[in-house]
């Protein structure tokens, strides 16, 4: 079976700062893998290397068997299969929710306006903000904006989704709605790589939890093991701080 994501000996430097120091990991189709770890440990950089928002210094990244780090690869074609959701929702402020979910479909997938609108409405319904199609981002709560951002990613029919702390910018009472949407996606079989501090979500939804610290993977295993019975002192210290 081809891995959905395969990362082999990934290194990333920013100048003299080595942020990723030889990462090895795989995500299989349909799996949910949560990445946890302290701020500055390289989690975002890792995720960004998976769709080449950052170019690795060394090592290989494969998405569905295609080597992203191969200079001849059609990176736009690979990126189209990957949905990404950020901590900051990055919606266009001058467009409605509906327009935000339509625009990339029209520009990138060359869908006609009618089709893009149908797909946008379906996905906004799916994430529970179908009634907010005509609202502008400023008229939506953070949780609603983040769900629009998820709908926007889903409208592109990605094979896998990357989430970078999707609930970290939200007021606590809005976190649950976003996690519910993510849980539903996971149950539908979406392949997901999720950086999160939500240990409850990681425990319940993840097939595997990866603990990163200082640019390396310290532990990688089932949630019950990594969160419930960590083997490394660094993991225990981190969990002690966040749980
Ligand atoms: P995390 O997401 O785990 O908090 P990051 O991947 O954002 O960690 O950052 C890891 C380290 O890389 C930090 O020291 C950060 O300052 C540095 N870093 C991240 N992006 C850049 C960049 N574009 N240029 C320079 N340094 C960066
Ligand atoms: Mg980060």
Description:
- This protein has a 6-stranded mixed beta sheet with strand order 6-7-8-3-9-10, with helices on both faces. It has a 4-stranded antiparallel beta sheet with strand order 2-1-4-5, with helices on one face.
- The chain has 9 helices and 10 strands.
- The mean pLDDT is 97.
- With 243 residues, it is an alpha/beta fold.
- It has helices spanning 43-50, 75-79, 97-107, 113-126, 142-154, 172-187, 199-205, 223-226, 233-242, and strands spanning 5-14, 17-27, 32-36, 58-63, 66-67, 82-85, 160-164, 191-195, 208-213, 216-221.
- Helix 3 crosses helix 4, helix 3 runs parallel beside helix 5 (142-154) and helix 4 (113-126) crosses helix 5.
- 36% of the residues lie in helices and 25% in strands.
- The protein is globular, with a radius of gyration of 18 Å.
- Helix 6 links the parallel strand 7 and strand 8.
- The structure holds adenosine-5'-diphosphate and magnesium ion.
- Magnesium ion binds next to helix 1.
- The site of adenosine-5'-diphosphate (ADP) has 11 residues, from strand 2 and helix 1.
- It is a peripheral membrane protein.
- InterPro entries: AAA+_ATPase, ABC_ATPase_HisP-typ, ABC_transporter-like_ATP-bd, ABC_transporter-like_CS, MetN_ABC_transporter-like, P-loop_NTPase.
- Its main location: membrane.
- Residues 5-239 form the ABC transporter domain.
- This is Polar amino acid transport system ATP-binding protein.
């Amino acid at each position: 079976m081809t891995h959905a994501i395969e990362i082999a000996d990934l290194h990333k430097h920013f100048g003299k700062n080595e942020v990723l120091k030889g990462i090895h990991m795989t995500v299989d189709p349909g799996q949910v893998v949560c990445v946890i770890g302290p701020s500055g440990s390289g989690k975002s950089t890792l995720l960004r290397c998976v769709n080449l928002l950052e170019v690795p210094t060394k090592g290989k990244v494969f998405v569905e068997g295609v080597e992203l780090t191969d200079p001849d690869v059609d990176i736009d074609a690979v990126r189209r299969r990957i949905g990404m959701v950020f901590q900051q929702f990055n919606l266009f402020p001058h467009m409605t929710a509906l327009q935000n979910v339509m625009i990339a479909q029209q520009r990138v997938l060359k869908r006609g306006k009618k089709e893009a609108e149908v797909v946008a409405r379906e996905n906004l319904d799916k994430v529970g903000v179908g009634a907010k199609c005509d609202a502008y981002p400023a008229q939506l709560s953070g949780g609603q904006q983040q769900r629009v951002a998820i709908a926007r990613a889903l409208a592109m029919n990605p094979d896998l989704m990357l989430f970078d702390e999707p609930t970290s910018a939200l007021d606590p009472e809005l976190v649950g709605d976003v996690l519910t949407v993510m849980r539903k996606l996971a149950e539908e079989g979406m392949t997901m790589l999720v950086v999160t501090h939500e240990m409850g979500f990681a425990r319940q939804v993840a097939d595997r939890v990866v603990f990163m610290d200082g640019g390396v993977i310290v532990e990688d295993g089932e949630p019950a093991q990594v969160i419930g019975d960590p083997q490394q002192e660094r993991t225990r210290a981190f969990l002690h701080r966040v749980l």
